C-alpha cells in the first residue's frame, strides 16, 4: 500500500517460556542434508563399478609410480631392522680410577656383557695422572685467594671428592712454572718492542729509557712494615708494559715446617745447608720489610731511601735519575696535611682551630690533592721522552 507504514522485519522477543519443540525450518534443513548425502553415496558406488576413462600416458606414469613406491618400501624394510631383546644397562663409577675431581664411569650390558668406559675429564700430560679439571680447580683457588681450604669447602658443599693436599701442592708448582715461563716471554717481547720504539727515535744503539717502579707487600694496610713477602715491578713509561719483576721473601714455609719436626737446632742447620744449596728455600731477603723496595730499581716513584740505594749503582758514567710520580706526590702532600691537622689541636691567632667548618677538613685536603696533581700534569710535557726543543 502506497504511503503506508512499512512492516518491521524484526520480531520482538516474546515474553515467557521459549518454544520447546523442533522448529519447522530446522526440520527442512536436516531433510535436505540427508538427501544430498544419499545422492553422493550412490554416485560413488556407481563409479567403483565402472572403470574411469584414463589416458594411456597417465596409466603408464601410474604404473611406474606404483613400482617406485613398492621398491622404496622394500628397500626401507631391508635397511631398518628391529630386534627385541632383554637389555639391562648397569651404570657404575670405578672408584679405583678416581683422581681428585676426575672420575671414570662404566656402562655395561647385562646380556652381552659389553662394557664401555666414560672419563669425565681429559688428561693434560702424556704421562702421569694430571687431569684438566683438577688443574683448573687449583688455578681458580689461586686466582681467588681461597687456597686449599676454600677448594675443600666448595667440594664438601657440592658433595664431591676433593684433591689431596700433596696433589694440590704439586699442581701449584706446575701452574707457577707455566706462569713464570709465560711472564718471562711476555716481558722479553715487551723489551724488544720498547727497544725498537726507542731506536726509531734515537740514532745510538744503546738508549736511555724512562720506567716507573713500585712495590707492594702482602700486608699493604701497614705499608709493608711487618710483611714477610713483597714484589716489585718495573714498567715502561713509553709502552706501559711490565719489563721486569722480582719477588722477595723473609720466610720459608718449608723451613718452618722442618724446624718444628727437628729435635734440635743442629739437626735443622744441617738440613738447611742442603736446602739452601739446592735452591728450594724461598728466603732471599734478610732486611727490613720497607727495604724490599730498594732492590734492583732504576727510576722510582719518589722514595728517597730506594733512590739513594741505587743512585750510583752503575758508577759515575751512568747515574740513575729520579723521576717523581705525580700520584705519589699527591699522596705525600695529603699525608703531610693530615699530619699537620692532627698535630695542631690548639687555636690559631684568629681564635679558631686549623680544622672544622670552612677550615682544613678531610674533604678540603682531598680537593687540594686533586688540584695539585692536575696543575702538575697540565704544566709538563705530554710526551714521556720530550726533545730539547719541546722542553
UniProtKB/TrEMBL annotation:
It comes from Paramuricea clavata. Residues 90-382 form the Mutator-like transposase domain. Residues 1-17 have a biased composition (Basic residues). Residues 1-21 are annotated as: Disordered. InterPro entries: Mutator_transp_dom. This is Mutator-like transposase domain-containing protein. PANTHER family: CCHC-TYPE DOMAIN-CONTAINING PROTEIN (PTHR33309:SF3), KERATIN, ULTRA HIGH-SULFUR MATRIX PROTEIN-LIKE (PTHR33309). It comes from the Eukaryota.
Amino acid at each position: 500500500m502506497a504511503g503506508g507504514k512499512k512492516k518491521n522485519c524484526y520480531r520482538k522477543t516474546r515474553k515467557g517460556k521459549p518454544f520447546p519443540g523442533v522448529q519447522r525450518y530446522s526440520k527442512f534443513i536436516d531433510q535436505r542434508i540427508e538427501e544430498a548425502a544419499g545422492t553422493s553415496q550412490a554416485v560413488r558406488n556407481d563409479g567403483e563399478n565402472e572403470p574411469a576413462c584414463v589416458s594411456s600416458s597417465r596409466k603408464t606414469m601410474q604404473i611406474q609410480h606404483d613400482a617406485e613406491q613398492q621398491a622404496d618400501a622394500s628397500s626401507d624394510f631391508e635397511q631398518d631392522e628391529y630386534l627385541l631383546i632383554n637389555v639391562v644397562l648397569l651404570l657404575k663409577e670405578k672408584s679405583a680410577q678416581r683422581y681428585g675431581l676426575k672420575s671414570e664411569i662404566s656402562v655395561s650390558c647385562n646380556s652381552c656383557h659389553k662394557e664401555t668406559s666414560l672419563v669425565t675429564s681429559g688428561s693434560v700430560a702424556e704421562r702421569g695422572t694430571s687431569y684438566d679439571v683438577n688443574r683448573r680447580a687449583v688455578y681458580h683457588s689461586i686466582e681467588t685467594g681461597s687456597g686449599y681450604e676454600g677448594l675443600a669447602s666448595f667440594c664438601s658443599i657440592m658433595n664431591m671428592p676433593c684433591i689431596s693436599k700433596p696433589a694440590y701442592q704439586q699442581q701449584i708448582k706446575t701452574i707457577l712454572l707455566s706462569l713464570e715461563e709465560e711472564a718471562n716471554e711476555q716481558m722479553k717481547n715487551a723489551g724488544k718492542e720498547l727497544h725498537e720504539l726507542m731506536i726509531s727515535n734515537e740514532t745510538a744503539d744503546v738508549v736511555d729509557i724512562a720506567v716507573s717502579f713500585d712495590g707492594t707487600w702482602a700486608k699493604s694496610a701497614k705499608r709493608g712494615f711487618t710483611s714477610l713477602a713483597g714484589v716489585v715491578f718495573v714498567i715502561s713509561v713509553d709502552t706501559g708494559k711490565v719489563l721486569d719483576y722480582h719477588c722477595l721473601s723473609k720466610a720459608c714455609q718449608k723451613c718452618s715446617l722442618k724446624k718444628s719436626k727437628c729435635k734440635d737446632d743442629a739437626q735443622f742447620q744441617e738440613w738447611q745447608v742442603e736446602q739452601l744449596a739446592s735452591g728450594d728455600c724461598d728466603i732471599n731477603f734478610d732486611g727490613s720489610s720497607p727495604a724490599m723496595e730498594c732492590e734492583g730499581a732504576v727510576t722510582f716513584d719518589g722514595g728517597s731511601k730506594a733512590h739513594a740505594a741505587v743512585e750510583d749503582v752503575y758508577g759515575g758514567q751512568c747515574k740513575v735519575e729520579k723521576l717523581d710520580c705525580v700520584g705519589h706526590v699527591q699522596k705525600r702532600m695529603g699525608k703531610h696535611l693530615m699530619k699537620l691537622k692532627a698535630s695542631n689541636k690548639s687555636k690559631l691567632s684568629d681564635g679558631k682551630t686549623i680544622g672544622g667548618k670552612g677550615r682544613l677538613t678531610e674533604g678540603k685536603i682531598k680537593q687540594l690533592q686533586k688540584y695539585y696533581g692536575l696543575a702538575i700534569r697540565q704544566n709538563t710535557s705530554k710526551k714521556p721522552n720530550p726533545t730539547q726543543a719541546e722542553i
